[in-house]
Amino acid sequence: MPRCCASLAGLAALWSLLAAGCAVGPNFQRPTMEMPAAWTGEPAGTEARVADQELRRWWEGFNDPQLTSLIERAMAANLDLRQAAARVRQARAARGVAFAAIGPTLDASAGHERSRTTVGVVGDLYQAGFDAGWEIDLFGGTRRGIEAAEADLTAAVEEQNGVLVSLSAEVARNYITLRVGQQRLAMARQTLTAQRKTAELTRQRYEAGLVNRLDRSNAEAQLATTAAQVPVLESAVRQTMHTLAVLLGQPPATLVAELTPDAPVPVAVTPVPAGLPSDLLRRRPDIRKAEAALHAATARIGVATADLFPRFTLSGALSFSDTHLGSLFTWAERGWSFGPSVSWRLFESGRTLANIELRKAMQEEEGLAYQQTVLTALREVEDALVAAAKEEEHRRALLEATIANRKVVELAIRLYQAGETDFLAVVVAQRALYAAEDALAQGTGTAAIELVALYKALGGGWGQERKL
């Protein structure tokens, strides 16, 4: 090996050894927070641990193939999710850019010059060469930059996971709202049919002189009031179909034919237990993203701190020049140079120190944001646990009220037909029944939506294993 190459290799090995042992700035420490031992809103005796697989595809617990299909199609085509995926690719490319800074650079150049001297001699000069440079990362500024880029990529991935969580919950919420709206619409139409019969019966009894005009007017007023509700419900149902289509990345009217047939409101058969509060730290994408953002901010303190120290560079050049192109690359025409250099910015009016303080303040902000994210997650789960439990109690009470009101209507109609009561009693009973049935449909949907909110608060809806 030529002496120059051996010297360059030995110097490079020395600088690599030095660079491997030092990185300025603080090392990232995973933040710790005191977490509750259990959820106050979860019933006593509930299983503490929950399988990730159950939360990953929580919608399957509703046993509704249509819901499962919609969520899976949304995850394949939703535009917000595709934007998040594009941001992941951007972060991955940025990591590649940061990583490339740690390696050497090599530039090639070539040129031709034709000239005439003052004595009239015309000649050619051919030149070619290579220039290499390598900034030794002695104080770890470049490595801290790579560390920050890695953390940025993790944050982008967790943001994508967060979109998955929100998307699955949003599709489920709108699907439940659709089925509730269709059920309310069906009940309104059934009630309208029954009230038409009652109004016709009242008209016949009025013409026979068995009831007065007030009874007939009450029947017609009740019929008109119910009829007015139908177009409002039809509009809401169609708009929900449009929303679902857009969530699936489709034009608004795409799903109208598919979703028009009525179906029951989905109800989860076996709700997933909430698990331990500490599980949120590894499961919720927003907490994981906040941790990654704190990691990136910590690494960038090191990037800024490295500017306080000198920069060491190894550089070398190999050149060839000749007046004849054919003999340009002969070894006798070579020229070379190599050696280390150092640069150190000694005065810059405190810019580097100010930048370090800026990065420290940004790290502090990210640390506080992490704490706020964890507290918000805890509140959301506690709220969802309480809401899910109380809405189920509310739904059961509405069911009992609906059953009781049906009996009242049947009794009122029999008494009216027997002439033992006036029509006002029938009107009041039918109005109460319609209100109870409508409230039951909404209560059933609200209970299901609150359960969806619980799954979302627990961080369900994304896979734990994802390639970065």
Give a quick precis of the structure.
The protein is α+β, with helices and mostly antiparallel strands and 468 residues long. It contains 11 helices and 4 strands, in the order H-H-H-H-E-E-H-H-H-H-H-E-E-H-H.
Plain-language structure description:
- The protein is of the alpha+beta class.
- The chain has two domains: 96 residues, Outer membrane efflux proteins (OEP) (Single Sheet), CATH 2.20.200.10; 347 residues, Up-down Bundle (Outer membrane efflux proteins (OEP)), CATH 1.20.1600.
- Helix content is 62%, strand content 10%.
- It has eleven helices and four strands; from the N terminus they run ααααββαααααββαα.
- Strands 1-2-3-4 form a four-stranded antiparallel β-sheet, covered by helices on one side.
- A hairpin with a 5-residue loop joins strand 1 and strand 2.
- Helix 5 runs antiparallel to helix 6, helix 6 runs parallel beside helix 11 and helix 9 runs antiparallel to helix 10.
- The radius of gyration is 37 Å and the shape is elongated.
- The chain starts with a helix and ends in an 11-residue tail after the last helix.
